[in-house]
Amino acid sequence: MKLAIDILEERISDVMASVAGREGCAAIVRPTTDAKFGDYQVNGIMSLAKELKTNPRKLAEQVVEKLDLSDICDKPEIAGPGFINLRLKTEYLTARLLEVNADAVRLGIEEISKPETVVVDFSGPNIAKQMHVGHLRSTIIGDCICRTLEFLGHKVIRQNHIGDWGTQFGMLIANIERRSHQALQGKTIGVIPVHLAEFEDFYREAKQLFDTDENFAERSRAAVVGLHSGDQAWIGRWRALVTQSEKHYQYLYQCLGVKLIHDDIRGESFYKDKLADIVKALQKDGLAEESDGAICVFSEGFKNKEGERLPLIVQKSDGAYLYATTDLAAIRYRVGELKADRIIYVTDARQSLHFEMVFAVARKAGWAKDNIDLVHVTFGSVLGENGKPLKTRSGENVKLKELLDEAVQRANAVVKEKNPELSEEEKEIIAKAVGIGAVKYADYSNNRTSDYVFNFDRMLAMDGNTAPYMQYAYARIKSIERKSESKDVNIETELAGVKELNLSEPAEVDLAKCLIRYGEAIEAAASDYRPNYLTSYLYELAQKFSVFYTNCPVLKAESDKRPTRLLLCDLTRRTIKHGLSKLLGIEVVEQM
RNA sequence: GCGCCCGUAGCUCAGUAGGAUAGAGCGUUGGUUUCCUAAACCAAAGGCCGCAGGUUCGAAUCCUGCCGGGCGUACCA
Questions:
Q1: Residue A438, burial from CB neighbour count under 10 angstroms (0-12, 13-18, 19+)
Q2: What are A247-271's pLDDT values in tens digits?
Q3: Is ipTM > 0.90 here?
Q4: CATH architecture group of domain A400-583
Q5: Nucleotides of B under 7 A from a protein CB
Q6: I need a surface site. Which of A184, A237, A428, A474 has the fewest CB within 10 A?
Q7: Does A429 contact strand B, using a CB cutoff of 7 Å?
């Protein structure tokens, strides 16, 4: 069924159009800013009145006169300078709740009518390096966008554009070769790093050798040449490195509950054979030209420090290709092969200019026609308490794994303190869900465009808009379920027979109204790619549930009240679970 | 220099086309438990929404200028 807000928007806009005698009127229905105004307010009358140069209250009256919303709302009220205030009818609310209740899978939320093929480019870790905190946001925000668009009915194609190609691989595979020789000489040394921490040393070792050992540097350059020319020995070493290091980020995806698999990988190496053609095509179309020895595309409106035109370099003066070239090849592939209607890039804001230029070139070259949506979803940095990008004391990037481990460890300490009687195994499961959930939720609940300060204590707090608070609300409902058995209440049979509801307490009505608005939050989150709209909604829901919980006994309620309350509990539980686990990829727990 | 982002309560942050008296949480102060998890709930105090102009019935939101911060700005990604 359609969302109330969408039905209202449509009907009121139609009436406005007929009153005004013109197309394209927007009612701009929004939740009220204050409950005393009802449930929804129409904001569009006043701006329309301005355009028509008429009195807004008079216009509102004319609209209300012709408006029939009697199946949804009480009589609309005109207020202030020209608002129309709407209050949902209890019968509508009841019917809607029962509908949501009957829909176990989608909670009464419709799929969109025009599904698109959406390619989402996110995460993109570098091979042979540990994932660090800088990869967190792209990985989880991208995942949430995928999950949300998928739920709404789009065909989502995840693309993990990993950094698995480039000159730095020369020294890495040269180091594999060097280590192999040592191993053959009987030295007990791992040839390819296996554990996460070893990658760091391995990379550092290669880098140091490259900088200090001319023979090694020479060998590294030979390795690059070998790699590019398809030498099997070098390719074998490279592939071993890629395979080994992929295992590590797959492990982290699993920890984070991020849905990215091996098949989603289309790394830089995937495009390596397509790059020459990209440059050739750009030259052939006269879009690319040589400048200072590099092949460049100059687009309108891009300037450098000196105010001169700024190029998108697609081939360096030494003949090598760059990420701009790869990104162009990727657009071509995604539009041509994957049939994308929309391509979303989830990377930090610092790459804005790069994508602006890439998009401009892709448009000019005709690889992305106007009907293809190219979207750069940016986000801010994760900061430490000092307001600078989060680093370790020694100034290194904080490893993602270490960050998550600490979160789980801290969560474990809290669980131990709050609920000591749980078994070790239960505590571990809860700590993992709470710890990881806290990190993710804290990230999601911030507006993605701003930087935020990372703080374990705050994200693990039980008060406020945090994962533990949400999980706690869920656990309380599960607890009611468990208690019901000992009180001879059979929830299933009571709910199965519910045909009518008895909403009388304010806390019940508030909760009910919140429940039927889940779809609004999802729509808002999807259209702006902003997970914080989801967390805000869920938090509001959990708060309303807490108020309901303190004011309205469920199991001890009179028989005329109990089914309604059981239903409110169950719908809240299902909505929280859906939001957290299905859309945000955060685990819920049975008890805390 | 130019471009993009940001500046909202003591702190951390919301604010979904320009809408009604700017909202949360933390912290502070006070209150609630023979009752389904008090990891909860209720209440109070706390704001020239960086500054100054402008646009209009109405501005945290749009425009201009300024101040302060971050990022980017030709061969890294």
A1: buried
A2: 999 999 999 999 999 999 999 999 9
A3: yes
A4: Orthogonal Bundle (1.10)
A5: 1-7, 12-21, 23-27, 35-42, 56-58, 70-77
A6: A184
A7: no
